[in-house]
Amino acid sequence: MKVTPLSGFPEFLPAQRVVEREVIASLAHTFELHGFAGIETRIVEPLDRLAKGGEIDKEIYVLRRLQAEGESAAADADKQLGLHFDLTVPFARYVLEHAGHLEFPFRRYQIQPAWRGERPQEGRYRQFTQADVDIVGRDVLPFHHDVEVMRVMVDALEALPIPPVSFQFNNRKLIQGFYRGIGVPDVTAAIRTIDKLDKLPEEAVAEMLVSDAGATPEQAARCLELATIRVPDTSFVAKVRALGVTDDLLDEGLAELAAVVEGCSSVDHQSVTVEANLRIARGLDYYTGTVVEIFMAGYERLKSVGGGGRYDALATDGRATYPGVGVSFGVSRALVPLVADGVLSGSRSVPSAVLVSVADEASRPEADDIAAVLRARGIPCEVAPSAAKFGKQIRHADRRGIPYVWFATTDADGVTTHEVKDIRSGNQVPADPDSWKPPAEDLRPTIRVSTGSTNEMEQDQ
Amino acid sequence: MKVTPLSGFPEFLPAQRVVEREVIASLAHTFELHGFAGIETRIVEPLDRLAKGGEIDKEIYVLRRLQAEGESAAADADKQLGLHFDLTVPFARYVLEHAGHLEFPFRRYQIQPAWRGERPQEGRYRQFTQADVDIVGRDVLPFHHDVEVMRVMVDALEALPIPPVSFQFNNRKLIQGFYRGIGVPDVTAAIRTIDKLDKLPEEAVAEMLVSDAGATPEQAARCLELATIRVPDTSFVAKVRALGVTDDLLDEGLAELAAVVEGCSSVDHQSVTVEANLRIARGLDYYTGTVVEIFMAGYERLKSVGGGGRYDALATDGRATYPGVGVSFGVSRALVPLVADGVLSGSRSVPSAVLVSVADEASRPEADDIAAVLRARGIPCEVAPSAAKFGKQIRHADRRGIPYVWFATTDADGVTTHEVKDIRSGNQVPADPDSWKPPAEDLRPTIRVSTGSTNEMEQDQ
């Protein structure tokens, strides 16, 4: 049977998978340092929880058993299941289902795939892995958690060997308060319209503000004026004040945005920049305060590689409302292009730091014993699959990127001599299986960063 | 909207998830020490690759987009996708698709969920996680890899804090050679019949050997006689020889099985036992040599918690054949019952080792700074969500299982005193954020093993 790749379902080769694995391990490590619990949810949700009549509905994958005997699709509709298309819907359901067993505020991270049946293109896949961090309260969730969760993601992305990323923050209260303050009739429609600024020219957006949100041309011009404010610090406060609009919600939004920008800038970061960008709106209606989009240098064509914000009602079950704040990083969206472009690669295709050579099949048990001794000391290794000529065994290691080959030779008197060769330098030295170890940087596969791309990054970071 | 659990889709609470996470990390660690590359495959395969006309077909979940405009189900059949029901089918496809980019023998592990629409029951779920290790060659794969891959799984399960497991080995060549040697007409049917010994009484199996495999009653009796042999060492060789059957394939099977039992017994294991059990056949037709089933003490009702074997043609693409040998451990099948029974639990519901208390909201930045210092030294911690009374903050830690609470008090002269309280003992001592660290066993959540069950296990292992 001929095997062809499936469009929209990227798969990594073993050395490429090292990149994904190390990135996921690093993200999880940072999230755990901040005390976030790692959970996983089942991949399916009832269809009525997924499909909300929005744009995304037609991209939902629905499940059906191949031979669902006697069950017509229609009769089965009430228990139809679909694959989740993000990690927010399943998380909200998890919170409601398990609320009685959770402690609030509940801080969780979740790194899992999601599925959307959309047209595949660079950065957009039908199966894609996301990394989400959220904090959810019961009935109340103090604002300082907005600052906290955004700082966690800043720390997490700072620790990754990816191109520099920019966190662009805004606040829904700020926009809403400003629009209300200048008297725009339909504030919600205006926010949805201003969100199109990355796709449409300013004039077109201005016209839509008039036609769709009922704004006057003067109001539309002031909305656009607000949206042009973009600064790397809290100087946006003075710039907004200079526009002369007074509104309580605007004041609240300005104070919150300033706290988030300040809180995220206060840490010492090399490859993360933080900005207040007042055109960021995020189309989704459920955001109620802080909003953020994350962009990656050199990959602006992917649009954002992450985003999130504050939602005052992530979920509600009649007894309680669960406000939350969170942010998501698109692991596949960022890594698949970076790996395809050769910016990131794995240092080898196997975990083995050492290949234990085999002189002849009769001595395989001795080679196995040497490997066991090395493994007991935490050194990943494998034993040569055949007692081929040593040159061939070295090539076996070389093709997999294994840096060291171990040789044990026993002389006529039964005395065994151990030597280990660094096949990169050709250096071969005596070694004791009970004490030898490779340099720390050779112990495990690592991510190599290439400078061959347009990004300015350290080599082999 | 009312939320009810979905039968067959088990989900872990945060502290339970610690068990799964640590088990998966331990498995991956062992597999990597042995040089196996960790890969993941997409969760979907073309339906014609999944559905082979067997028992499992009706359990396959097929995907369909919710609003696949203009695509009738029939017209779309040739590109229909289903969820994989094991990790072997996708692995075989991965090998064929990427053969030109892989180095053989290719040694990989894969820890991912799979899906089957079967009736949910204990140990059987609609979504379940498996951990597979396989070695695949191109055209040839020496027998010693059978021993190798089984030793890897023995090592991996030995490292887990689960009840003792038993590896029960047999060899298809041994059974086939024996059946051929005594003249059973339909050897394949006989193997499939003898595999039913765990469900049917011996008399019924004997009758079926006559009716389905064309055996005489005498041949059926000798097949059953072979199947009763079960020993923890290589003494099965003499017992089979004593049955007086001569056949080349039988000899080969005896030698291979002896090598596997010896190879897996030679390592020093506490909680893994190894047996030759000549009634193990494994129904699947593709096994051609070594076969194994893994059972867990006290949980025999789950049937096996793992299994695998040798297949001389995992995949073939016209140019080459890919023989393989592998073994799978049912992570969900073993862990969901162990967690439900309280045998295994997580030591806490969050990664945090320390809760940094907050005296008043004005001092939150100082608490954040203390947390940052601890995190920079690898200590997971969180800051109290509110400046409540210290008693309430301590209860916040206690409910999550966080062992330490940090107190910083600044006197009128601006001098800050740091103290840390072990809330289990009540012990409170002065501490320096730049040097204090918790004992290693408190640093991360761990798996607790309860002796409350029928299993003899160490507590808090």
UniProtKB/TrEMBL annotation, chains A, B:
Domain of life: Bacteria
Ranges of residues in domain Aminoacyl-transfer RNA synthetases class-II family profile: 19-351
Compositionally biased spans, kind Polar residues: 448-461
GO molecular function: histidine-tRNA ligase activity
Reactions catalysed: tRNA(His) + L-histidine + ATP = L-histidyl-tRNA(His) + AMP + diphosphate + H(+)
InterPro entries per record: aa-tRNA-synth_II, aa-tRNA-synth_II/BPL/LPL, Anticodon-bd, Anticodon-bd_dom_sf, His-tRNA-ligase, HisRS-like_core, HisRS/HisZ
Region (Disordered): 422-461
Annotated Gene3D superfamilies: Anticodon-binding domain, Bira Bifunctional Protein, Domain 2
Annotated keywords: Aminoacyl-tRNA synthetase, ATP-binding, Cytoplasm, Ligase, Nucleotide-binding, Protein biosynthesis
UniProt record similarity statement: Belongs to the class-II aminoacyl-tRNA synthetase family.
NCBIfam families with a match to the protein in the record: hisS
PANTHER family to which the protein is assigned, alphabetical: HISTIDINE--TRNA LIGASE, HISTIDYL-TRNA SYNTHETASE
Assembly and binders: Homodimer.
Protein name: Histidine--tRNA ligase
Organism classification: Bacteria, Bacillati, Actinomycetota, Actinomycetes, Propionibacteriales
